[in-house]
Amino acid sequence: MLRPLFLPLVGCLGFLAAPLAGARPLPLEGPLALENNDLVVLLGDTLIERDGNYGHLETALTAAYAGKNIKFRNLGWSGDTPRCESRSYFGPPAEGFERLKTLLANLKPTVVICSYGAVDAWKGQAGHADFLAAYGKLLDMVKESTGGAGVVLVGPPATQTLPPPFPDLTTHNQDVASTGKAIAAFAKERGLRYGDLYGAMTGLKVDSSNGVTFTESGYAAIAPAFLKALQVPAAPAPAPGGLRGLVQQKNQLFFYRWRPQNEIYLFGSRKHEQGNNASEVQLFEPLVAEKDAAIQTLLGKK
Amino acid sequence: MDKRIFPHVMLSLAFTAPVWAQRDLKELPPVDPASEQASFELAPGLEINLFAQEPLIAKPIQMSWDEKGRLWVASSAIYPQIKPGQPQADRILVVEDTNGDGVADKSTVFYEGLLVPTGIMPGDGGAYVANSTELLFMKDTDGDGRADETKVLLSGFGTEDTHHILHSIKRGPDGNVYFAQSVYIHSHIETPFGPRRLLGSGWWQFRPESGKLEVFSMGQVNPWGMVWDQWGRTFTTDGAYGEGINFTFPGATFLCLPNQLPRILKGLNPGQPKQAGLERISGRHFPEEMQGQLVTNDFRGHRVNRFAVKEEGSGFSSQQLPDVVRSTHGSFRPVDVRMGPDGALYLADWYNPIIQHGEVDFHDPRRDREHGRIWRITAKGRPVVAQLDYEKLSVDGLLDHLADPEDWVRINVKQELKRRKVEGLYKLVMDRATAPAATPDFKREAIGLLQSCLLMTADNPLLTAEAGTDFQMKTVRASGQLFLDGKPGNADVLFEAVNSDAAKVRLEAVNALRRMGSAKAVEAATLALGKAVDENIDFALWLTCRELAGVWLPAFQKGEITFDGDVTRISFALKAADRPEAVGALLGLVREGKIPAPKIREALGLVGSLGSPADLTRLLQLASALDAAPALVVAAYDALGTAVKQRQAKPESGTEALLEKLKSPDTTVRAAAVRLTGAWKLASARPALEELAGSGSPEAVEAVAALGGAESAKFLTALISKTQDINLKAAVLGALIGLDAQAAAGPAVEFLAGLKEEAPAAVVFDAYLGKKGGPALLTAALGDRKLDAAVATAGIRKASATGGDTKPLVDALTASAGLQPVGIGLSPEEMTKVMAEVKNSGNAARGEEIYRRKAQLCQTCHAIGAVGGVVGPDLLSIGSSAPVDYIVDSLLEPSKKIKEGYATTLVNTRDGGVFSGFLVREDAREVMLRDATGVVQSIPAADVTSKLSIPVSLMPPALTASLRRDEFIDLIRFLSELGKEGAYKVQADSLIRRWQLAQTTPELNQIINRDGLRALTGGEQPGLSWTPAYGTVKGDLPLEDIPVVKLYQTSGRVAQGEVSVTTPGKVNLKFADPAGIKAWVGQQEITPAASVTLDLPAGKHRVTLILDPEAHKSPLRVEVEAAPGSEARVVPVGGV
After folding, report:
1. Which among A271, B265, B336, B370 could bridge B277 via Cys, Cβ 3.0 to 4.6 Å?
2. Largest distance between two CA atoms of chain A
């Protein structure tokens, strides 16, 4: 039996647009058509988590759909896999899985953009079967907990070999490519859209801190490739100045909300000591909403 | 900042805060630095001055000097928790003393915008910053002193507890960057070498140049302080656990919650308070006698501790020296300590009346968020060290300082040379290091320099040329690091070193071979068993064989490695591997008689835990052999019992062979056979078991119960009335409750009502509490029957410590003995009143007497300074770390305040069993819980259906129920004084504080008549009974605590202590009052005196004393220490 997880989130994220639950199929081909009032969750590993800080990917997406009111929520977690290994805190990965399930059920996103595979690529071809089986379970859970949100699978980004003493990642990069291919085939089987980020990064010079994780300017370079992989339509106008700043501020506030520090005191085994402060994290919600509104205002609505 | 948020926050504070705000505010110490400084008591020869204070700095957590002599400070006003609407504005500050007068006069905000930064290290042209989930590298590219470029180097560090997050960044002498995370943190990090995860505490080793990140050591509750000696050996301290200095070699693993490995290492100073930050005194400013001393902070006790470490075996012993500084100022919180560029010692003073954040609300207004100090300690009358201008020195000039006596200069020189990317550096260094005039110090540092500049290779002549012991140790560590850096290493160096005569070299060799990682490396590592194997080497080798089992076991099975056919090495490796593949080989060794008798039990235990049914069949055959030694049979049967209990594994055939052994004339064999028939539920054994049960065998009672069914219940029910012995009767009842709790309820209550003894009652309570629905059945059956207070208290204690709904049972038991019910917490007004009484009329001396009362049970579970029970936290410094109201709450409502690592874990098993206790360890095989009586239980993992961590304390709430109000106030006063400066701080003395006291038994007189008084010197033996007793905080054992026993023709008080000698030599045993004492050390009688000098070999020695009631009238007080000038190391043995 598992601990009830993330109970404090139950029923307190209702302010987030509250879109209708129900299937939201995304056509397999053609431009990615996000709609007015979509709530898009970005789910994945380090690639996604760090975009929370930098905001380049999200800003580019926001600008591309500037005519529509779309909200983004970043649920990336460094080192994560479809087993939710990074989300487990004190328990086994299954607890992280349950935690994400509850979180998604409360957020009720209409679209989930998943980027996994960078961590499992280290296991090479031999790891594909296990990885995809776990991915399948994760996607079943996403479907169930969101009432059928539209899903896009993005393959892992290409890695780079930096000068020694950084390691030569040539072989690993081939494993990354083959992991991407395996995800593509898997997406096809499940009737899901696939975004070939690795392919879209071909020939791209991307600044990274170690060959596998990217710097702020690296994200700026990846953003067009990310949009290309997702087949996002061209932006009607360049992103207005200050948009990325607002996106970053909103993401920081949302991070405080869904991954607050002192988990053990607020919700875990020492909540008898500081659990009284757990409700305080809900006070970040109106602050997140304000930033959402400011983004829309900046984009010229209302 | 968003203003609208504030009304919400203020409103929510209004409900929680005023009580705090009003209660203790008056007691906040004065904030002016002068009054803080006036409170300092310094070691002789030292002086202290204020280097920096607010507004130059505030709330320092870690500090670190750069090569320009500027002090970088990580500062957090947000800690412990950001509030909605609060800007993320924590800072990195850079403080300078521009005129060299020893006082800072300039401060620059390098960066503002962090979230609880707990680590800072300048270097590589910027600064490494620990920022909650990330390790950042920040740079000032335009020279204005402010960071304008930030790179995330690593991300994915956990933040489950903000005093555990990524912290304490330090540069090692090998050029690596080290940092720690603590016990609640779970980190998941993507690196160019693959993902790295650390679930729990440990120290990381990071090489920024290559992106390589590895776990250097694991465990410790809040690892917080790391330093190296001149040879690069690592020491660490723990900010939340009390073992002082930890010798931390690569792979060393200490306590974790729960433990990650089945075995762990210990610190060098058990019984210490918790310590933060660690520095080593080096350099020419401090006098010779202080060189090499380790300095760390007891921030709870407002003092800065000091230790001297000395090589011992492959590691060290550590001795505490007088404090560097101690204070009575309640806000003096030294948390970091560093040698400065002028050779002075600097302290970062977090300055706060409140520390930690479990006990006190996150937003308690008493938390200081503005102040902070850096103190500077110098040696009186000695010149400071001239600061080097590294940038201006030539390469040769820098090399001239490579082996300077100042630790920090040696690191700065290496980093400066690395920064310059000097062309031809390798040759320059090697020319100087291999010249005839090169000093050993220079060669040693040359290795570190080449490592720092990533120029070290396996064929470097420095790694092989020298065989000097310390130097060889250094070369071996460096060779091991090569493997870790993914470079080819030099195996020959390691193969030679593992045979070294010096234990410290062998330890490094085993660790380096582990890093080498091949089957051959494991095979070679086991050669270390050929020489003396101490705890460190044993652990390192065990870890090597275990971690690399997947590599060496297949190679061994294929015959690629043979361990030279050496059974000692093979069996060590197989046992450490702890894998099913190892079992067959191990069993073969036992059968061939190649495993020495004392090791057989352990070896067969592994077969039981891991063996296949075929292996178990062979094991049973082995035990069934006619000539099998009884010890082997017992070990084999117990192992077979483990196999079936842990994982339902049984031999394929031949189980009936057991019936014969039920008739064995050897009682130990018979008992083991009985246990195994029960475990196997061998129905054909019923008649034999019933017969044995009827003749009083408790094992047989359990075995009959294990057979199960109505037949067993009927037999046991009938047996109850036939049984007279209360312990056996309790066993029968316990067994029956397991089978049919309903039917047993009547007889059980009948039994309890007639009892006065706790132990048999506990058996019955345990049986009911361990069964689903059990407590309700017992409550109902209890009705309004009256129970003895001791019996009821035992039940309350057991029931309170269980996770389920046991309140009705606790209420019923409380009523049954007419115990005073305990109030559920105090109202704020009552609490204020209690606190005032504690302060005004509480008497700590009387409180200590109450604490020591047997019936109060305090000492059963708690130690004070590692002397006493281990079930609850050590109370050594409770008074200096916890506010009075926290202590009151802890006693009245233990579950409201649970110290980290003391939460209760509740386990349900498939057969409806319920277990609760402190989670010691869990793995794929078993879950281990320590219950409220200190007993560790193993529950097979396969049986566990759920495991919950529940916010329930193992401490029963009823413990203070029997106290009068004034007694309660005195007890609180005593606890609140513990660890504060004064009479209730455990001193760093070496008094024997843990004693065993002889009790009267029916056989005692007879034994003394037969063997003389000397019989008492042997400790445990049949017919003698000893109970533990612990000295007072001051170190005395009051005479009235020691019973006078009749000793044939005489009588006396018999107390037995123990001392542990780790380095043999002359030792002084000092009696505060030698009058009327007969004494033995070991078997040898000595004549007590103020000081008796003894020459003791290494090992533990019992000190047995008989006090003449007529002649000895003062409390017992005995101290042990090395005789002046002696090399000996001796400490009194503490513990339970």
Report:
1. B336
2. 54
**Residue B958 CB coordination number (10 Å):** 21
pLDDT over threshold 90, residue B886 = no
Confirm whether B19-379 and B994-1132 share one CATH topology: no
Which stretches of chain A drop beneath a pLDDT of 70? 1-22, 302
Q: What three-state secondary structure class fits B382? A: coil
Kindly report, residue by residue over B1011-1028, the tens digit of the pLDDT: 888 889 887 777 788 888
Residues 248-267 on A with a CB inside 8 Å of B are 252, 256, 259-265
In whole angstroms, what is the distance from residue A204 CA to residue B792 CA?
76
CA dist list (Å): B138 to A67, B169, B178: 38, 14, 17
User: Is residue B218 a contact partner of residue B256, using CB atoms and an 8 Å limit?
Assistant: yes
Q: In degrees to the nearest 10, what's the CA dihedral of B1024, B1028, B1030, B1031?
A: 0
Assign B594 to helix, strand or coil: coil
Residue type, B695: S
Three-state DSSP state, B1117: coil
Task: Please tell me the class of the B994-1132 domain.
Answer: mainly beta
Specify the pLDDT at position B529: 93
| pLDDT per position as a tens digit, B423-432 | 999 999 999 9
Distance (Å, whole) CA B522 – CA B527? 9
Q: Which residue of A has its CA nearest to B15?
A: A276
Domains of chain A: 7-298 (3.40.50.1110)
Q: Tell me whether A45 touches chain B (CB under 8 Å).
A: yes
Specify the pLDDT at position B825: 66
- Crossing angle of the two packed helices A284-298 and A243-258, in degrees rounded to 10: 160
Do B881 and B979 touch, CB atoms closer than 8 A?
A: yes
The pLDDT of residue A19 is 41
Rg (CA), chain B: 32
Q: Where are the domains of chain B?
A: 19-379, 994-1132
Phi-psi label, residue B729: left if phi above 0, alpha if psi -120 to 50, beta otherwise: alpha
Mean of the per-residue pLDDT values of chain B: 89
Residue to test with chain A: of B9, B118, B188, most A Cβ within 10 A:
B188
Cβ-defined contact of A262 to B158 (cutoff 8 Å) = no
Taking only the tens place, the pLDDT of each residue in B786-808 is: 998 888 878 887 787 666 678 88
* pLDDT band per the 50, 70, 90 thresholds, residue B932: low
Examine the predicted complex and report whether its ipTM is higher than 0.90. yes
pTM higher than the cut 0.95: no
A175: helix, coil or strand? helix
Q: Which residues of A touch B361 (CB under 8 A)?
A: 274, 276-277
B676-697 tens-digit pLDDT: 999 999 999 999 999 999 988 8
The DSSP 8-state label assigned to residue A87 in this structure reads G
Which CATH number, 2.120.10.30, 3.40.50.1820, 1.10.10.60, 3.40.710.10, labels domain B19-379?
2.120.10.30
Short-list A142, A49, A24, A92, CA closest to B922:
A92
Residues of chain A neighbouring B896 (CB-CB closer than 8 A)? 272-273
Per-residue pLDDT reduced to its tens digit, B617-647: 999 999 988 888 888 999 999 999 999 988 8
Using the CB atoms, write b or e for A90-109: b if 16+ within 10 Å: bbebebbbbbbbbbbbbbbb
**Range B711-719 average pLDDT:** 93
- Please spell the DSSP secondary structure of B637-680, one letter per residue: HHHHHHHHHHH----SS-GGGHHHHTT-SSHHHHHHHHHHHHHH
Helix (H, G, I), strand (E, B) or coil at A270: coil
| Helical (H) or strand (E) element with B926 | strand B926-930
Q: Are B116 and B79 in contact (CB under 8 A)?
A: yes
Task: Out of B194, B358, B949, name the one closest to residue A274 (CB).
Answer: B358
Predicted confidence at residue B795, as pLDDT, reads 86
